[in-house]
Structure formats: structure tokens, C-alpha cells
Design brief:
single chain; mainly alpha; 15 helices; 68% helix
């Protein structure tokens, strides 16, 4: 066991999360909303703690075995959900920290349960954060880190296999980092397609973005109290249903289809079932 290497990987993972808090922070600042302070504090805490932990362990080297991979992934989800709950806590709209952590876990794990009863009253930056953490969880925060952080390439396949269950864990490219990049590229392309189609269909740009995030994650966090019941209409509901189906399909098959091999879907037993 190499605890310093594990701490280093966890620190890098949470540093990625902290940097993504800049997006809702900017939204809050531009719109002049009260949760700007909450995101500013959360960003500062997450980046500071992760940076200190990384600097203290940056010289750690070594290989990860299967046990290490499962440990990093398990602790990664726990710590990511912990830091992801901070904007909810400092925003003051979710009650105690237990509620905030529940909401964060529900988002990152794409469970979709919520403690909220009045969703539409939340500031837009907070609604955006609820949606984007679910989007991250849809593909996997570990897979995201493998795509953007070369330092996680050490023992990366162990993390990849521990994070992604089922056939998608087969490498599409020789390097696991390239596989992670390709999977995220497909994920982003399909998400952008849904955003555009919802927007063309008359849904506001903000709602199109948030609902596309949660549709692809098959999680279901919404921006209104009744989700899509009144604001989307039949067109929007059918579109979301279709893209949620796509979100449930093995993304390796989507990649092969985008490369021109449409028949890959029908060679896959899981897809046919």
C-alpha cells in the first residue's frame, strides 16, 4: 500500500472538481445572484485543500494494483461528493450539511433523489451546479480525470476498470487516457446535440443546458418543481426520452457508430436485449 500516492491522486481529482466551480461562480457573478459568495468560498476551500495535499505528496511514485484502484475510486467518490456539497451548504438553501451531502451524492451518482420541494426558487448558479455534477457522474469523475490529468496515467487502467463497469471498460485505444478522452468526446457531442435540439424546440437556453446534462446522465435533476411536465411539451418530452435512451447505451458503441460502424449496435447482445 502506498498511501501518499493515493492521497496524491485524490488531491488531483478534487482539484479538477474545484476548478469546475469557476463556471457556476461566473454565472452567479454575471447574474448578480446571492450564491456567488457560496461558490467563491467552496472554490477556495476545495482548491486550497487539494493543492496542499497534492504539494505534500507530489513526489510519490508507484504502480496501482486492483486493490489500489478500487480504493482510489471509492475514496474519490466520497471526497468529491463532500466537496461538491459545499456550495449547497454555504448557499443556505438545503438546510444542514447532511441534506447538502445527500443532494451531492444523489447528483454525482446520478440517483436523482432530492431533498428539495421548491426547486424553481433556487438561484440559477445552484441549479446549474446540481445539473453539472450529475453530468460529471454520468460518465464518471474518475474517467474525466484520466482524460485531463496525465499524472493519473500511472496505473490508469486499474482506475478505469474500477470506475467503469461492464463492456465499456474495454479499451478503445491502446492508452487508457486516450480511451477516456474518446468516451468523454462522445458524451459531449451527444449532450451538445440535445442542447441544440431542445433550444430549437423553444426551451430556454439555460433549461436546455441543465436538462441536457441530467438527461445524458440519466439522473433527472430538473430546474422546475414539476421537472418537464409543463415547460417542455410533447416535443421536449420525446426528445429527452430518446436522449436518455442514448445515455443508457454503452458509449463504446456510440463511438463506433460515429466512426461509421452503425451495425456495431446490432452486433452487441446487451444493446439488442
Amino acid at each position: 500500500m502506498n498511501p501518499r500516492l493515493i492521497v496524491k491522486l485524490l488531491a488531483a481529482l478534487n482539484l479538477v472538481l474545484g476548478c469546475t466551480m469557476i463556471i457556476p461562480l461566473l454565472i452567479a457573478l454575471i447574474l448578480g445572484q446571492p450564491d456567488a459568495k457560496a461558490f467563491g468560498i467552496s472554490f477556495g476551500i476545495t482548491v486550497a485543500v487539494s493543492s496542499i495535499a497534492y504539494l505534500l505528496t507530489r513526489r510519490s511514485r508507484g504502480e496501482l494494483n486492483h486493490r489500489h484502484g478500487f480504493l482510489v475510486v471509492s475514496l474519490g467518490w466520497i471526497t468529491v461528493c463532500l466537496f461538491g456539497a459545499l456550495p449547497f451548504y454555504f448557499g443556505g438553501n438545503f438546510g444542514g450539511f447532511t441534506n447538502c451531502y445527500f443532494e451531492s451524492v444523489s447528483g454525482f451518482t446520478t440517483t436523482g433523489s432530492t431533498i428539495l420541494t421548491k426547486i424553481s426558487t433556487l438561484p440559477k448558479a445552484t441549479l446549474f451546479w446540481r445539473s453539472i455534477i450529475q453530468w460529471y457522474g454520468g460518465m464518471g469523475i474518475i474517467v474525466l480525470s484520466l482524460a485531463v490529468l496525465p499524472l493519473l496515467g500511472v496505473g490508469g487502467m486499474q482506475l478505469f476498470k474500477a470506475e467503469v463497469p461492464g463492456p465499456v471498460a474495454d479499451k478503445i485505444q491502446p492508452r487508457v487516457r486516450d480511451t477516456a478522452k474518446l468516451l468523454w468526446r462522445v458524451y459531449v457531442i451527444i449532450t451538445l446535440a440535445e442542447m441544440l435540439l431542445l433550444w430549437i424546440g423553444g426551451v430556454s437556453l439555460f433549461d436546455s443546458i441543465c436538462h441536457s446534462f441530467t438527461t445524458m446522465a440519466t439522473g433527472g435533476f430538473g430546474t422546475k418543481d414539476d421537472s418537464v411536465m409543463t415547460q417542455f411539451g410533447l416535443y421536449g418530452e420525446m426528445l429527452i426520452t430518446f436522449f436518455m435512451f442514448l445515455g443508457g447505451v454503452n458509449f463504446a458503441l456510440h463511438y463506433m457508430a460515429l466512426k461509421g460502424d452503425i451495425k456495431a449496435y446490432f452486433r452487441d447482445g446487451e444493446f439488442k436485449v
